[in-house]
Design a protein that fits this description.
By secondary structure, the chain is α/β, with parallel strands linked by helices. Helices cover 32% and strands 13% of the residues. The protein is built from nine helices and nine strands. The radius of gyration is 17 Å and the shape is globular.
Length: 269
């Protein structure tokens, strides 16, 4: 089975501009995340999909330096960018890993992709997000190329174009949806935030990297982070007011398979 992982990355974040280029242990955040994806035992191709804006020349330069393919496309229609990044090669399945997951555990990526490879005849879309159980920031979605192409052709609503995959997973009556839950039995999806969208998130992630990263060694995973948080519980407070905050909160009237319990609004200072 031919799998292609697409990481959508741009410098123009509205809440935290240039977040993907902020330093983590001496290297850009995006590079640290790509190291984690490449450490996963997937056998998948990897491509970064950025925008065609000159502001993202830095992303193209970084990919060239790292020897990773880079596609430049639409700045706001992420579904179009995702599809066109793979349309020439038409892999059997396409993986979406957002660039705001610099702490993603390589073992989580492998687990979700292994499940899809085993059960692809039964599913059009598999993720670890519906419902989510891992700490926020371990997002892995995999879909057949056919499902992605259908979404690209038919999705019309703004949130379906902007967020790439809701046209698929929000229609369980049309697409066969699978989910991989955390084998630990825990659900920390609304209490532990490992993703980056705000300066507080960067402070948390930078602190974790400063404590756990060892250059030249395999990336640390979720267990090591949770052990660190048990030893240093104040770290979790750095971005606690954003725990559970995600884009769903803006589209509760549009989404059929998401409820108010799946999202939160940021707490004020």
């Amino acid at each position: 089975m031919r799998l292609t992982i697409v990481v959508q990355a741009r410098t123009g974040s509205s809440r935290l501009p240039n977040k993907i280029l902020m330093p983590l242990a001496g290297k850009p955040l995006l590079q640290r995340q790509l190291e984690r994806i490449q450490a996963a035992d997937t056998g998948a191709d990897l491509i970064v999909a950025t925008t065609d804006s000159p502001a993202d020349d830095a992303v193209r330069d970084l990919c060239r330096e790292l020897g990773i393919r880079c596609y430049s496309g639409h700045p706001t229609d992420l579904l179009d960018r995702h599809y066109r990044a793979v349309s020439a090669t038409r892999p059997d399945a396409v993986v979406k890993i957002p660039s705001d997951c610099p702490l993603i555990d390589p073992e989580v990526i492998s687990l979700v992709l292994d499940f899809y490879r085993y059960a692809y005849r039964d599913y059009d879309f598999v993720s670890n997000l519906h419902p989510a159980t891992w700490p926020d920031g371990n997002d892995v979605e995999v879909m057949s190329f056919a499902a992605l192409e259908t979404a690209w052709k038919e999705a019309k609503k703004p949130h379906e174009r902007e967020h790439t995959t809701p046209f698929i997973w929000d229609q369980p009556d049309r697409f066969r949806i699978g989910n991989v839950i955390w084998p630990s039995g825990l659900d920390l999806s609304m209490s532990h935030r490992f993703t980056i969208d705000y300066p507080d998130d960067y402070e948390f992630i930078r602190s974790v990297y400063d404590d756990l990263h060892r250059e030249g060694e395999p990336p640390f995973g979720v267990k090591a982070i949770l052990d660190l948080l048990e030893a240093k519980p104040d770290l979790l407070k750095l971005n606690a007011r954003f725990a559970g905050v995600n884009w769903y909160r803006h589209h509760l009237d549009d989404l059929k398979s998401v409820t108010a319990a799946d999202t939160r609004h940021p707490e004020s200072n």
